[in-house]
Amino acid sequence: MEGGIAMNVSRRGFLAGSIGIALADQLPSIHAATGELHYLTLRDAAARIRSKALSPVELTQAILARIDHVEPKVHAFITITREHAVDAARAAEREIAAGRYRGPLHGIPVAVKDTHYTKGIKTTCASPVLADFVPSFDATVVTKLKNAGAILIGKTNLPEFSSGSSGNGTNNPWNLAKPTGGSSAGNAAGLGAGMFFGASGGDTGASIRGPAALCGVVGLKPTYGRVSGYGVMKLSWSVDHVGPMTRTVEDNAIMLDVLAGHDPEDWASADVPVPDYTRALRRGVRSLRIGIPKGPMIEGFHADELKAFDQAVRVFQKLGARVSEFDFPPTLAVMGDAHNIIRICEAASYHEPFLANKAELYGPSMVRRDVEAGSLITAGQYLRAQKVRKIFVKQMLAIFNGFDVMITPESVPAGEPTRAALNPHSPFNDTGFPGMAVPAGFSTSPPGLPLSIQIVGKPFDEETVYAAGYAYEAETRFHEQRPPL
């Protein structure tokens, strides 16, 4: 059992190994100085662990205590891997004490969406169809997190099979009566509530960026193929993206450093060089060419979001960026329909064996309806949708020749409707371009809900997205606000 004198002695020993017995004897004052460990940035937690001023076990226990306190309100998890996490933290502590530090995720509690295969741990996709499914291997991203020394704290909640924009009972930490969006709802809510330091999610049409925006955290949908989808259950194989969610832009770059890279097990994985994403963070945005949608495309957004977007544009201009407007190509008008045809047709292919053998087990969500509709789509209709998509990608690449990044409004206050002509999410799933949600303030009506902007980059240019996001975040500091839990 953890706790008590034995735990204190082992933790003191960990500290003494680096900073001396005299300082280790002052453990209570060190604890007082750490404040709320659960709201450290990933970078700061990693720095304390690397210097042995904080042990992985100590940090993991603090996170588990935080989960015990707020999870009954937030409902971010499907499975909490308590014993696994404590065992992994002990192993990390031994390795670090012996001088075998693996990098900035070593000893850091993280979570993964419950679409990610986890060896020996249930992977349910929040569906009765897979209620008892225990994979025999880890998804590639889970393997990468483990190899980096990260501590898996649990599997997070989502709508059934990632289909839908609700959180399947997950509550928004900023207002428990408000939604989180979907589908990486548990990731976003858990980060906002301080229950882990990073998470891996999936995004088919908004599923990383939408919940991140509504819960006031940072979510990146990388370029299609940048992060392996092997061992991640599919909603739509040609539109799905896997990516990191964190509380800061720098933490997100740290996670992508671990998650990115070619995977021969994933046929869609891109064999392109992977830079050190943290190196680009501080290069600034002076002379950066930023494109923003022309007014008619966004005028239906909530007034608070439009105000936040306008203020964000002014921040970038103040920092030396060059901002100009652009028009989306005319194919945008039909890309919504094309996206839906592609999505449900590919979902039907994935779900075919479940529909044949377990159809009665689907929950009351839209999943069964969508996949049955998808099974009725003809090959010709699917191919025409993909042809429209190919034209749209070509047109968007041509527009991007004049810009380094694009910025769009990201969200509306949780639960509020929008009449905007632009869906800020699915067009960039269809193109495969990287897009990141970054906190951009708080609403006034309803009050106190997170607002966000989206920063979109060229294919495989996450570095510029991060540089722009970091510069904006450093200037505004919205990410430092905490929900009233």
Please outline what is shown here.
With 485 residues, this protein is of the alpha/beta class. 42% of the residues lie in helices and 14% in strands.
The CATH architecture term of the domain at 27-279 is Alpha-Beta Complex
Bulk shape = globular
Which CATH C-level class of the domain at 27-279 is it? Alpha Beta
Give the beta-strand count.
11
SSE arrangement, N to C: HHHHHEHEHEHEHEEHEHHEHHHEHEEH
Q: What integer is the average pLDDT?
A: 92
- Strand-pairing-aware structural class: alpha/beta
Q: Determine the CATH topology of the domain at 27-279.
A: Amidase signature (AS) enzymes
Poorly predicted runs: 1-10, 18-34
Strand content: 5-15%
CATH superfamily of the domain at 27-279: Amidase signature (AS) domain
Give a quick set of tags describing it:
alpha/beta; Amidase signature (AS) enzymes; 485 residues; eleven-stranded mixed β-sheet; single chain
Blueprint of the fold:
Layout lengths: L3 H16 L1 H4 L2 H8 L7 H9 L5 H19 L2 E4 L1 H16 L11 E5 L26 H8 L3 E6 L28 H8 L6 E5 L5 H7 L2 E4 L19 E6 L2 H11 L29 E5 L1 H4 L4 H16 L3 E5 L5 H27 L8 H8 L4 H22 L4 E5 L16 H6 L3 E10 L2 E11 L4 H15 L9
Helix pairs in contact: 5-6, 8-9, 13-14, 13-15
Written description of the protein model:
This protein is α/β, with parallel strands linked by helices. Among the domains are: 1-26, no CATH class; 27-279, Amidase signature (AS) enzymes (Alpha-Beta Complex); 333-389, no CATH class. 42% of the residues lie in helices and 14% in strands. It contains 17 helices and 11 strands. The chain has helices at 4-19, 21-24, 27-34, 42-50, 56-74, 82-97, 140-147, 185-192, 209-215, 249-259, 295-298, 303-318, 332-358, 367-374, 379-400, 426-431, 462-476; strands at residues 77-80, 109-113, 151-156, 199-203, 218-221, 241-246, 289-293, 322-326, 405-409, 435-444, 447-457. It has an 11-stranded mixed β-sheet with strand order 1-3-2-4-6-5-10-11-9-7-8, with helices on both faces. It is globular.
